[in-house]
Amino acid sequence: xxxxxxxxxxxxxxxxxxxxxxxxxxxxxxxxxxxxxxxxxxxxxxxxxxxxxxxxxxxxxxxxxxxxxxxxxxxxxxxxxxxxxxxxxxxxxxxxxxxxxxxxxxxxxxxxxxxxxxxxxxxxxxxxxxxxxxxxxxxxxxxxxxxxxxxxxxxxxxxxxxxxxxxxxxxxxxxxxxxxxxxxxxxxxxxxxxxxxxxxxxxxxxxxxxxxxxxxxxxxxxxxxxxxxxxxxxxxxxxxxxxxxxxxxxxxxxxxxxxxxxxxxxxxxxxxxxxxxxxxxxxxxxxxxxxxxxxxxxxxxxxxxxxxxxxxxxxxxxxxxxxxxxxxxxxxxxxxxxxxxxxxxxxxxxxxxxxxxxxxxxxxxxxxxxxxxxxxxxxxxxxxxxxxxxxxxxxxxxxxxxxxxxxxxxxxxxxxxxxxxxxxxxxxxxxxxxxxxxxxxxxxxxxxxxxxxxxxxxxxxxxxxxxxxxxxxxxxxxxxxxxxxxxxxxxxxxxxxxxxxxxxxxxxxxxxxxxxxxxxxxxxxxxxxxxxxxxxxxxxxxxxxxxxxxxxxxxxxxxxxxxxxxxxxxxxxxxxxxxxxxx
Length: 583
Prior knowledge:
Elements (H helix, E strand, L loop, with lengths): L1 H12 L5 H9 L4 H12 L6 H10 L4 H23 L5 H15 L9 H9 L6 H9 L1 H6 L2 H8 L3 H23 L15 H4 L3 H10 L3 H18 L3 H15 L3 H4 L5 H13 L4 H12 L8 H10 L1 H21 L7 H14 L1 H7 L9 H26 L16 H9 L1 H16 L3 H7 L14 H11 L9 H16 L3 H14 L5 H10 L8 H17 L3 H6 L17
InterPro entries: COBRA1
Pfam families: COBRA1 (PF06209)
Protein name: NELFB factor
């Protein structure tokens, strides 16, 4: 067939007879059997000792093809070993000269499946495969596929579009994996999006594949970073920032100094990585990070764009925000003001650099965002006053009560707090983390007091997936409160349902939460929620799927009609529907 002819075409160039030659010989001869014998002698394995062995194999019914094939396989193995050895021995120029000669001789046979591995092996060991050969490989889909990654890197580094085609599905997969974790049906305050350590995350399939594709090639590394920047700008998706940091640290783990030493963010990212591992920025590392920020020289401000992207990684923001909340609590105990704490000011400086990443890369104006004085002089003291309110209330509860009766928990929120959450990005981020903190402490009073401030926040941060993922996890600690009408009304009607119809992701998170806690919710409330959460025509598949799962669970909880009709006429609650009293 045509494929065969093409495959063996290279043999003629090398002066080796092929099937076409045999056909020609047989067509033009008078004694075919003699001609075949002659062809076998001329083109067989030239070893004198074989002259007698081959007829012996014939007697045993071993086909000549099988014999030649096994000799060939053996030789190919030897050749592959030899190529790998040549690549390591002698003077650099000499060994590459040998390999280039070998490539010249063998390349014409690259289409023969039996020879192809040898040709590929030679190319793999050449640091610079001749341009012409690379072009031929590129033009042929099957050859390109069969290439070693070492050869592909040489092709990619001058073909950004082709490299982009290879990287693009991996980036899509990465974002999908992140979203699957955020929307996972397993809700828990112990295990959440931020639980895996940085080391564990870097073992992920996408990071490992990209690391392998880049090798030690700075040009390819730069291309990937360029893709990540462009996608971050196009989508505002912060998971690209995580990948930026993970990729650098994955190369760091492998000690690829060729890349680490030229990435100006390397040491900063390494130090921050240690903080993320501990979920806290300690004083020593804080000094180190500050040194890097203060050390940005005139004329090198562009590095701030990269540093801001590293700080915009949700794992970095999470660490900075948790550290900020811990610092504020310490300051309450020490009676110190926020503006008197250099450590706290550094955390805020890094938070604003991270939160300003998109604007900085978009505008290409590389300077640190200005910190608003109000944030430090008004907002943080407000948060500290909430911490004080909690202490006071707890102490009051323990004091012997006088005639005046128990002191109620403060229920109003200062208007300034709500305004800060609406207008200031950093204030909003810290405010949300404070709310996560009190929820984790099972502080229902403080939670219900601050919840109304979440309905309108800076760029709807309270309805972002990361916050809702963490909030739903922490709410499982307050599961017993779901039996109370008042709690459910504040949480669902007052918060979640205000956004469900305009934000599909909120709809999903509420359904996730109910799938997990439906058995705790007061029955009447559950029924009204089931109506309110019914998917509309516009709802996506994920919402419909979750809603169906929930409906099935609720169906199972309902008493069967038989039970209902036979129930005694006395007004007793049915045992299958738990009420708060029966707990």
